[in-house]
Here is the input.
Amino acid sequence: MPPKTRVTEDMIVGAALDVVRESGFENINARTVSERLRCSTQPVMYHFATIEELKRAVYTQVDRLHTGYLMSFIGERDPLLNWVAHGVIIVWMVACCLYLRRVETPAIDRLDGQRT
Here is the structure.
């Protein structure tokens, strides 16, 4: 029987989210996350094959938190606030789609004027 996993995906994403809060999204890596969890880098790389996968999971969690926060305003008595909240949610969704498109689209190599 394999040993029980002590470090879960949720714990890793939570630790990566703490790293983002302290030092920014660009500082997410296996070492900073594992230091926060007080473990080796192996559990981080076990749950996420690449750091890009981890960053995508953190981005998804931030999106959930942000959407939940915005949705908490909907239903308030002020109709202007509802209108603004709906507008912000739409803008946020468009930004998420654009970000994911940028992350998942491979870089286009420059041809330097040469045609193939």
